[in-house]
Amino acid sequence: MGIEEAGKRASGEENICSNVIPAGAVRNVRVRIAIAFQESNLQRKISSSELAKAANTSSSHLSRLFKSETGLSPGEYLRRLRMEKARQLLATSRLSVKEIMGAVGYDSKSHFVRHFKRSFRVTPSEYRKNVSN
């Protein structure tokens, strides 16, 4: 991968997380509530039953609503929210990768790096290096 291509990928011009729909753009109130709950709780584990309880519906019903509104399952949506937040923190803060990992709800560095690389095609450290250049 060339420097220009790495910079393009690191800047987010080419990634799979860019299709996370903001809560305000979702019509269904239960899905908006679930997204807002996820956004407020990125740093911790969220079970499907806890998310459904926050939206005052069943897990299976929320999953169907979520998929129809966003095109993603609640779990995939949460993963993408976490990756977007991690990308933002890498670009704008001096927090270590380990601190960012914790701030977005990961306790395993290997899972965090794997998900970040799958999302943005570079590791968190490579992303930060490319953004700072």
Structural features, described:
With 133 residues, the chain is an all-alpha fold. The protein has a single domain, classed as Orthogonal Bundle (Arc Repressor Mutant, subunit A), CATH 1.10.10. The chain is 65% helix and 0% strand. It has 8 helices and no strands. The protein has helices spanning 3-10, 29-40, 48-54, 59-70, 74-92, 97-103, 109-120, 124-132. Helix 3 (48-54) crosses helix 4 and helix 5 (74-92) packs across helix 8. The longest helix is centred in the middle third of the chain and has 19 residues, at 74-92. The radius of gyration is 16 Å and the shape is elongated. Mean pLDDT is 87; it is low at 1-16.
Q: Topology of this structure?
A:
Layout: H1 3-10, H2 29-40, H3 48-54, H4 59-70, H5 74-92, H6 97-103, H7 109-120, H8 124-132
Give the CATH level 1 class: Mainly Alpha
Main pleated sheet: none
What would you give as the CATH superfamily? Homeodomain-like
> Which regions contain 5 or more consecutive residues with pLDDT less than 50?
1-16
The second-level CATH architecture is: Orthogonal Bundle
Instruction: Tell me how many strands there are.
Output: 0
Helical percentage: 55-70%
CATH topology: Arc Repressor Mutant, subunit A
Outline: elongated
Query: Whole-number radius of gyration?
Result: 16 Å
Mean pLDDT: 87
What is the total number of structural domains? 1
N-end to C-end Cα span? 16 Å
| N to C succession of SSEs | HHHHHHHH
Secondary structure tally, helices: 8
Instruction: Provide the β-strand percentage band.
Output: under 5%
Structural class: mainly alpha
